[in-house]
């Protein structure tokens, strides 16, 4: 699922009365938002236990990452509505939209979020603070943001002629192999060609039924794929990945979703720089595979940071793909050898730059790029966590 357009934020506005109320109360609500969101999730999961069992990432909930991500998105959107100097959170909303369609989120679920979120706001701030006028203004903020996301997600579903939420497909594991100490590769095959060829760099959500009866979903970047099969790399770092390693074998049937994700290799002949850390190499290999398949002649630079050569799970495949290209090079940086990934002097001029890795890594690389005078519009990134707002 992919569209070239972005979420439509420019046309959304509050009424003058609501804008004045949000300006007056944003410091208060914003200051308490990290207290509000845990209460919200507790209320929602109590009323709808199927959501934490079957849709939401329980690991992110335990760590508090999902709460921070929701808090940041609401505060950022409200700030945009009342401050012309505030950054437009369009990139964040695009990532949220892709994540939602990858989980099969539908319009009716926004009402569930609304009802429990506003109950949490009243509980934390008090009914004397959340007067009818204040509630009405924040209600307007929520539904403006919800409408932007629903419309964008509708476009994403329609990009593959899908009904909203109709993204889950049964697949059979047709290959499983270990790439490193903690990374496994799986090939997932649909017997009736019910998948959709992904854009280079996208991901799929994989669902498994755990021992406690919960259907948990996790997103995994695609190494390659077409309408018949997806190939993913899984780093063992949680309950779903551990289940896939220990309990899922070749021949078993699991669930996956139609590919989504906004970190997609752009067409054209601009030079390309692919910069990654750890398992962040996976979407980069997906992009390299596409470039090799189309016999691209554009200059390609691959920079990868890892603990060691042994922990670089896609090292052999990445090098093989680089060797197939007419103008490409791969440089690796290993912490065990005291290396640090430096971008200065390594990037082609005017390159489109793609980043994937942990929060700290992306912040560091983006700081290096800024110091090197790289235009922000040329930098595209993906995180394996809900907290891309940190970057």
UniProtKB/TrEMBL annotation:
Domain Globin: 13-154
Matching Gene3D superfamilies: Globins, Nucleotide-binding domain of ferredoxin-NADP reductase (FNR) module, Translation factors
GO molecular function: FAD binding; heme binding; metal ion binding; nitric oxide dioxygenase NAD(P)H activity; oxygen binding; oxygen carrier activity
Reactions that this protein is recorded to catalyse: 2 nitric oxide + NADH + 2 O2 = 2 nitrate + NAD(+) + H(+); 2 nitric oxide + NADPH + 2 O2 = 2 nitrate + NADP(+) + H(+)
Key words, A-Z: Heme, Iron, Metal-binding, NAD, Oxygen transport, Transport
Enzyme Commission code: 1.14.12.17
PROSITE patterns linked to this entry: FAD_FR (PS51384), GLOBIN (PS01033)
Superkingdom of the source species: Bacteria
FAD-binding FR-type domain ranges (all copies): 166-266
Family (UniProt): In the C-terminal section; belongs to the flavoprotein pyridine nucleotide cytochrome reductase family.
Record protein name field: nitric oxide dioxygenase
Species this chain originates from: Corynebacterium vitaeruminis DSM 20294
Taxonomic path: Bacteria, Bacillati, Actinomycetota, Actinomycetes, Mycobacteriales
